[in-house]
């Protein structure tokens, strides 16, 4: 009898403990911010964060919920029509596995808010997504539910385009899909014609090989003046917390190049380029938000130049040169970021670094390794943020590249650039100011290298390659307009009024172009960005009026280009 009572009591205690455990397990607290209520057409809605949840210390990610939205939201009466429903039906949704492969955290990991934010940044960079939001949406004891919200873009798109810059036209057409069959892999074929060449191309890129963080790709180009081949295999620093990287790449490229004087090609030659690189990197130390990485590798970079049959009188032919060198370097950075809107994109969330990145490489290219001369190779790049608030963003860059020839005791192809840029107003208002000042100095450039200005190289009111020199300065001031206008729920429209001032010149007596003074232009333009198709690029149409220059240039220049930024 006593034994039976003991069993009953034990059973009650066990049942009570199980019930308590079940109660704790299902005693979940949901965030008041759920992805179903987020409007991905409104950047500020995407910037909402679940600040009402208290995350227990040491909590783990118990589940990852993927929510995929179609291209068009047919629950919205403005998008519920036959065309938009058809496009939704024809589009293959991005695979859940492709989205999970982009995340820098996994189910079972200890919760780190930085990895949540970083995963969101990675997803926003993908060509096949218009927007992304990642956040903790539920706390169940010491387990968390993380929700990933994305919206697809229409990616299978035949491209037919004409662009004009610096008085020269470029045409292209092709078929590309950066999200082939919803896999997140990129495949494309194309044809392009510009003043220098016609080109047929094929490329493939896989950013997550077999669902991993390895990346691989290749490109194949046939040109009227040569060919192009390229391939790579890489495991990058896919996260700011990644411990190591590895990279392997190669290029075989043959094309005709020109030297310019006053926007005119004065000499053509054939350039053959072979390139091979293998490198690795390791995260050495981290303190607070600062991280140090060690980098090392080997590069083979060979350039061969040949005369063309119809260029028998070419007086300057670049010398063949081969660099073959091991190198070592470091990457020192601050891992701070800020989300802003209307800096360089139209009504899109933009991730900007709020800190510095300093990368330096030092190598030795010796004749014993197959180099044409003994050289020291030194490259450096430094970027830092001067000021950042909700409505202001200012940054500057310093960069330097070049080699030192030991046989001639001189530097060669030394190039240094300093620039500063400032944005004001766009994050909170529908218009903003943007300005940038850049200065570049070159020393002992080889015949295949030129420092140019005009058209695509700045100074939109002048032909491409209008001036050349060993010094270049360019100042740009723009008034940008970002109206919250969304015609047919398909496009974003923006505008700009601008002025450019600059010049390129030689510090000796060489001629820098038809007009050797400071050049100025003014102009206005329109920006058109799709919110549903190929969202990573926008159409730029500028009308620029030169205020200087000789009589050979037009009274105004029309520039029609496709770019990723304003």
TrEMBL record:
The keyword Amino-acid biosynthesis does not apply. It comes from Marinobacter salsuginis. Its main location: membrane. PROSITE patterns: PROKAR_LIPOPROTEIN (PS51257). Keywords: Membrane, Signal. Residues 179-549 form the Bacterial surface antigen (D15) domain. Gene3D superfamilies: membrane protein fhac: a member of the omp85/tpsb transporter family (2.40.160.50). Residues 1-20 form the signal peptide. This is Bacterial surface antigen (D15) domain-containing protein. One of its GO terms (cellular component) is outer membrane. It is found in: Membrane. InterPro entries: Bac_surfAg_D15.
């Amino acid at each position: 009898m006593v034994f039976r009572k003991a069993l009953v009591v034990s059973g009650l205690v066990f049942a009570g403990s199980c019930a308590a455990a079940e109660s704790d397990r299902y005693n979940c607290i949901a965030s008041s911010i759920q992805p179903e209520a987020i409007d991905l057409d409104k950047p500020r809605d995407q910037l909402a964060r679940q600040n009402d949840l208290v995350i227990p210390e040491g909590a783990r990610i118990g589940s990852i919920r993927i929510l995929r939205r179609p291209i068009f939201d047919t629950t919205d009466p403005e998008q519920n029509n036959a065309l938009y429903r058809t496009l939704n039906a024809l589009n293959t949704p991005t695979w859940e596995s492709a989205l999970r492969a982009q995340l820098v955290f996994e189910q079972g990991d200890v919760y780190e808010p930085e990895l949540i934010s970083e995963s969101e940044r990675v997803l926003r960079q993908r060509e096949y997504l218009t927007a992304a939001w990642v956040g903790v949406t539920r706390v169940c004891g010491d387990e968390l539910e993380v929700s990933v919200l994305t919206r697809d873009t229409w990616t299978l798109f035949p491209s037919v385009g004409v662009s004009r810059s610096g008085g020269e036209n470029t045409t292209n057409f092709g078929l590309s899909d950066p999200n082939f069959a919803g896999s997140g892999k990129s495949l494309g074929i194309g044809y392009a014609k510009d003043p220098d060449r016609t080109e047929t191309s094929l490329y493939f890129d896989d950013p997550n090989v077999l669902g991993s963080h390895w990346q691989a790709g290749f490109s194949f180009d046939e040109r009227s003046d040569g060919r192009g081949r390229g391939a790579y295999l890489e495991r990058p620093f896919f996260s700011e917390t990644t411990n190591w990287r590895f990279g392997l790449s190669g290029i075989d490229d043959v094309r005709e190049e020109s030297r310019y004087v006053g926007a005119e090609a004065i000499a053509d030659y054939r350039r053959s380029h072979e390139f091979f690189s293998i490198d690795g990197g390791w995260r050495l130390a981290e303190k607070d938000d600062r991280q140090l990485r060690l980098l090392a590798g080997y590069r083979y970079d060979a350039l061969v130049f040949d005369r063309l049959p119809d260029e028998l009188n070419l007086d300057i032919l670049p010398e063949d040169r081969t660099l073959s060198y091991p190198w070592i370097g470091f990457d020192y950075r601050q891992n701070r970021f800020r989300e802003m809107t209307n800096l360089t994109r139209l009504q899109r969330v933009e991730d900007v670094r709020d800190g510095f990145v300093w990368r330096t490489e030092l190598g030795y290219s010796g004749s014993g390794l197959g180099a044409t001369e003994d050289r020291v190779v030194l490259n450096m790049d430094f970027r830092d943020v001067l000021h950042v608030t909700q409505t202001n963003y200012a940054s500057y860059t310093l960069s330097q590249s070049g080699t030192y020839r030991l046989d001639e005791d001189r530097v060669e192809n030394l190039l240094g650039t300093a620039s500063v840029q400032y944005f004001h107003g766009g994050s909170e208002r529908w218009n903003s100011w943007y300005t940038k000042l850049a200065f570049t100095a070159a020393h002992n450039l080889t015949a295949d290298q030129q420092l140019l200005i005009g058209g695509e190289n700045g100074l939109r009111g002048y032909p491409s390659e209008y001036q050349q020199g060993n010094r270049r300065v360019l100042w740009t001031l723009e008034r940008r307009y970002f109206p919250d206008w969304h015609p047919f729920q398909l496009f974003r429209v923006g505008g700009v009024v601008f002025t450019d001032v600059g010049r390129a010149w030689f510090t000796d007596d060489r001629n820098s172009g038809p007009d050797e003074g400071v050049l100025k232009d003014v102009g206005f333009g329109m920006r058109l960005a799709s919110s549903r198709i190929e969202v990573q690029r926008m159409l730029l149409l500028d009308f620029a009026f030169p205020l200087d220059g000789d009589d050979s240039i037009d009274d105004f220049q029309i520039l029609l280009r496709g770019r990723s930024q304003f």
